[in-house]
Design goal:
99 residues, mainly alpha, elongated
């Protein structure tokens, strides 16, 4: 794997880490307006990163294994965030309905 590919993977891993930190922070301590916006921003960022890895795999076929692993991590992160979003929306509805 060449230096540019390593750098690309590192940058996306750092961005994913930042997205996950923001999501976890908002899940545990924010109001709903912020919650929805931050979650949707993170999901949008992850979607873009997944697309970037797909394009990069077309350009750098030698590193496709490493890029597929990165893409898999991104997809797992997206699934986790979507699951948490669904769970929290259900909890919010329950709280609203019980008051």
């Amino acid at each position: 794997m060449d230096l540019d590919t390593k750098r690309f993977i590192y940058i996306l891993e750092q961005k994913m880490t930042t997205c996950m930190e923001k999501v976890l922070k908002v899940i545990y301590c924010s109001e709903q307006k912020q919650f929805d916006r931050i979650i949707q921003d993170a999901l949008s960022d992850i979607k873009i990163m997944i697309s970037l890895t797909q394009v990069y795999m077309l350009i750098d076929k030698e590193s496709s294994k490493d890029l597929r692993q990165l893409q898999s991590k991104l997809i797992q992160g997206r699934i986790y965030i979507e699951k948490e979003l669904t769970t929290l929306k259900v909890e919010i509805r329950r709280m609203v309905n019980t008051t």
